[in-house]
Amino acid sequence: MANKCQFWKEYDSVSGPVSYCELAAFNRSVNPDFLLKIGCTESKRKECLGSMELNIEVGATPASKPATTPVASFSPPAEIAKSMITVAENKCAINMKSLILLAILAGAYIALGAIMFTIITNDLAAFVGDGLTRMVGGISFSLGLILVIIGGAELFTGNCMVMTGYLEKKVTGKQLLSNWFWVYLFNFVGSLLVVFLFYYSGIWKANGGAIGARAVNVAAAKASLPWVEALFRGIFCNWLVCLAVWLSNASRDIIGKILAIMIPIAAFVAAGFEHSIANMYFIPMGLVLANQEALLGLLDPAIIQGLTMKGFFLNNLIPVTIGNIIGGAGFVATTYWGAYLRPLHSQKGIAVNRKM
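^ thats the sequence. predicted structure below, dont judge the formating
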C-alpha cells in the first residue's frame, strides 16, 4: 500500500492479527520533534491508522502529545520562604472565634502527643536503654505536631514563623503580637483540658501506676531546671519545631509531610529540649498526680520537691517561652527571610535606581 509507513508492523495475537506502528508497540520516543524528523505527521498518522483498521479492524499509532516535565515532590527553599508570607497573612486574618477554637485544639493535640510519649516510655528504658527510649519517645510525641499541621490548628511555637510576614511588611507588629498572645493563651486552655480528661480517665494508674509515676518524674525534672538551661533548651526546641513546619510546607504529599514533621520532632525530644506548649501539659499533669495515694510508693520525695507552681512558671514556662520565640522567630523565620526574601528587595531597589 502506498500509504503504508516504514514502521507499520503486523503481529499475530491470541484474538487474531493486530497492526501497530512499531513506535507505539515498543514505546520508542514519540516526542513531536522526532515524529516530524521521520515524516510521521498528524495527517500521516491518521492515514496509517485508517489503513490498519480497514485491513484488520484494529491498530495503533504513536501519540503526538508533547513530553511533560515531571512535577517535583517538594518545593525548593525560595518557594517555601514565599509561601510562609501567605501563611502568615492567613493566620493573622483568622476571625477570633475560629482562632480560639483552633488554638484550643492545638494545645490539646500537643498534649495528646505528650500522653503518647509518657505511656510508651514509662518502662521502655529497662528493655532498650536510654538512647533508644528517647528516640521512640520522640517519634511518639511527633503525633502532636502531625495533628496540628495536617489536621489544622493554631500552635504558638509554629506561629513564631509569622515573623516572616512581619519582616516582609505584610503583617503588622500588632497583628503578630495579638496572634501570639491569643494562641498561646488558648493553647494553655487546650493543654489543661487534656490534663483534666486524662486524670479522670484513670489511664495513669495502668502498669501498676508506672505511667503516672513517669508523668510526675518528667514534670519534676522540667520544673527543676536552672533558668538559663531552660532558656537554651527552649531555643533549640523551637529551632527544630519551626524547621519541621518549614519542611512540611516543602512537601506536596501527606507521607512526605509526616516524615518532615516526625524527624525534627523526634530529634528535639530525644535531646531533651523544652517546648512551652508541651510543658503546659507535662507539668500541670505532674502537679495533679504528685500527691495521689496510688503513686506515693513509686515516687522519690527528693525528686518531686521542686515540682511546684513557682517552679512551673519561673523555672520553666517563662524561660522556655522566651527561648521558643528566639529559636522560631529568630533562628528560622528571620534567618530564612534574610537568605531568600531580603535579597529580592535589594534587587528591586537596584533596578529602581538604575531606571532613575
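The chain is about 70% helix and 5% strand.
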